Amino acid sequence: MIKKLRTIAMIPARYEASRFPGKLMKDLEGKPVIVRTYEAAVATGLFDQVYVVTDSEDIRQAVEQVSGKVIMSIAEHSCGSDRIAEAVANLDIDIVVNVQGDEPFTNEDDLRNVLQVFYEEGADTIDLASLMTPMNIQSEIENPNNVKVIVDQDNFALYFSRAPIPYPRDQDIEVTYYKHKGIYAFRKQAVLDFAKLPMRNLEASEKIEAIRYLEYGKRIKMVYSETPAIGIDTPQDLEEARAILKQRAS
């Protein structure tokens, strides 16, 4: 019998955001964005526990008002992985899933699929897993807010970039562009290792924390998702999210 891995979800929630300050506390059809994300993660039923990890008293209060569990960060952190590493250091777990606080439409199938790789053949070679979804619209491919990923023949990540990769030098070659969806499933040790490793120039240049894992030899298994990523990075994204919820409620 395959041992069930002790699995939790953590939602790193930083109040300040360079592109859209305070976005996690913006109203999304009657609830803050962060509360919508927390409730979506809990509703999947996939986790032994779900936590919001934050340095914001406002976010803490909003989540606790819906009986959510919150861990307050002690140190200052530059990225979600660092925040999670501090929070899980003393927890007895095997896998921690980083659910992005600004992605309130994260669905159960995506989360189940990204967790499944840790139960399949060759799982012991995987340090972390994440999601990718195809992009077909050129403006989305060129948008630097959309992180792109390229993979090898076994769907292990080769590189992440805000630039369109691969570059289409030969227009006759058909390639699929994949958007990185910001959900990670880490082995506990992988995220603890991450927090101890200094940022190198590629990560600093692109501002993509997944690159640090690659630079230090960690293996990231990418899982295909047919569900488009709906993150809230701008006020326009928030309006689109509100429209989606209104449509679902009608």
From TrEMBL:
Its EC number is 2.7.7.38. GO terms for molecular function: 3-deoxy-manno-octulosonate cytidylyltransferase activity. This is 3-deoxy-manno-octulosonate cytidylyltransferase. CDD domains: CMP-KDO-Synthetase. It comes from Leeuwenhoekiella parthenopeia. Pfam families: CTP_transf_3. Activates KDO (a required 8-carbon sugar) for incorporation into bacterial lipopolysaccharide in Gram-negative bacteria. It catalyses: 3-deoxy-alpha-D-manno-oct-2-ulosonate + CTP = CMP-3-deoxy-beta-D-manno-octulosonate + diphosphate. NCBIfam families: kdsB, PRK05450.1-5, PRK13368.1. Keywords: Cytoplasm, Lipopolysaccharide biosynthesis, Nucleotidyltransferase, Transferase.
